[in-house]
Amino acid sequence: MKKMILAAVAASLVSVPAMAAPFDQRHPPKVMVKKQANKRVVVQRNQRHAPAVQYRNWSKGQRFDSRYARNYSQINNWQQYRGRHLYAPPRGYHWVRSGNDAVLVAIAGGLIGAVVAGAFN
User: Model pTM greater than 0.85?
Assistant: First the structure.
């Protein structure tokens, strides 16, 4: 019990300086205005961090993860897209949309069986 209390106190002491920082330091402005010789110049701030999600280009044999898919949705009625080169999925597979691509994904393991690039252009 004593160890749990000490751990909780230590965690709260570590997190206090982060919460006490001024709002401007935690969330710096994206646009800054600089004054130069009676002029105001608007300067956009560069993004330091990469985007939270990095989208992928899929290929056969990879493991599909919907978190990395653009515009993810499952295709329930593949017959609608027969003109876009989609065919009946084999047992244990289903079609998924990722951006403009149609991806044939195994339901159980997530392995990619086929990719139809540009099916939704």
Answer: no
In the chain, where are the structural domains located?
48-121
For residue 22, how many C-alpha atoms fall within 13 Å in the half-sphere facing its CB?
Answer: 4
Instruction: Check: CB of residue 73 under 8 Å from CB of residue 97.
Output: yes
CATH class of 48-121: alpha beta
C-alpha distances out from residue 44 to 49, 51, 96, Å: 15, 17, 38
Query: What's the pLDDT score for residue 34?
Result: 60
CB count in 10 Å sphere of residue 38: 5
**What is the C-alpha separation between 37 and 113, in angstroms, rounded?**
63
